[in-house]
């Protein structure tokens, strides 16, 4: 039996994954924890073959950051990132951290079990794109990478100067990017733009 650790802070999602795995006949849940902060220690104390790792976990701990740490000390453990967040940078960060596969959450039992099988066989499975969503009148695919960087920083509530300093651009350039996005979305001001971006999950600065 393949030993699976689930890292998921949503009790309903955690239970659903447990049921899928236990009914498979080839996987066994050896642990379910809510925070990725405990996953690294768990892997050092127990034999784990596969981790299903959420991104936004309890106690504000990033599943992406912990996955990268686990891969450095236990490279043989397969890791699948599971998330409902469409943040465009999550896929890139997962690849950079050595994560084996990436899955957007659904209730399709066959889909997740097939992904687990293929990952355990050595394949690396990633979606071709993030889920489609709108902010105002604009689709997520219409934003440039630089606009998304500015938008991600904008959700922190900082000034254009502070954002520009972190991104290595001028405050005026930040202002121009924000104006572009306001025109694209039809939103009225930077606050409404930041709130809409945060609520939609298009950008997520916290994880």
Automatic annotation (TrEMBL):
Name this protein carries in UniProt: Stage 0 sporulation protein A homolog
Signal sequence range: none
Function: May play the central regulatory role in sporulation. It may be an element of the effector pathway responsible for the activation of sporulation genes in response to nutritional stress. Spo0A may act in concert with spo0H (a sigma factor) to control the expression of some genes that are critical to the sporulation process.
GO molecular function: DNA binding
Record-annotated Response regulatory domain positions: 3-120
Keyword Phosphoprotein: yes
Record-annotated HTH luxR-type domain positions: 136-201
Organism of origin: Proteiniborus ethanoligenes
UniProt entry keywords in alphabetical sequence: DNA-binding, Phosphoprotein, Transcription, Transcription regulation
Taxonomic path: Bacteria, Bacillati, Bacillota, Clostridia, Eubacteriales
A matching Pfam family: Response_reg
Entry-annotated residues carrying 4-aspartylphosphate: 54
GO biological process, one term: regulation of DNA-templated transcription
